What we know:
The protein is an alpha/beta fold. It is built from ten helices and five strands, in the order H-E-E-H-E-H-H-E-E-H-H-H-H-H-H. The chain has a five-stranded mixed β-sheet. Strand 1 and strand 2 form a beta hairpin. The radius of gyration is 18 Å and the shape is globular.
Amino acid sequence: MLQYEQQAWGSGFSAIAGVDEVGRGCLFGDVVAGAVILPQGLIIDGVDDSKKLSEKKRELLYDVIAEQSVAWSVARVDAASIDRLNIKQASRLAMKLAVETLAVQADYLLVDAEIVDLSLPQESIVKGDANSQSIAAASIMAKVTRDRLCLSEWEALYPQYGIAIHKGYATKLHREKLLQYGPCELHRRTFLKKLLGEDILQTAL
């Protein structure tokens, strides 16, 4: 999990930020990106692609990463911006904001299958969250942040949709609730149009 970091350290870079996003495929809510700079040579046991970890394990690792990282940050881009920009550009914007808000400036980026719109040297790695500890750490910070929003703030605002259960993804339950109640202001209209057609959008307009 450190091969890409070791290559960058060997080239003279010291503040290497892993960057990843979560929520790209959701129908509801923000896309959230994380950026994490870990100390050179540090190995955090158990860090892996956030999707492979249990919720309990992610929560534990979130605290470890927050404590042991040189710097970390998360950034959000909301549903309205996703509809305006498209999800690819919104994801890239969230990644850019996460890097820019790090307390320590990164000098090199390892990015999960994307390009960050900054003039920093960077490497895009396919399945990066399974092959780079820094990217995996960023995915954990982003995933836990987004899940906490689903379980607390968003669930409290819109309890009728079951956001705490499906986290905004296009599950059978979520689709049923959309048909019953129509979309709310945090649903991504461009996603719903593709999935459910124009008619359901009119129920909330």
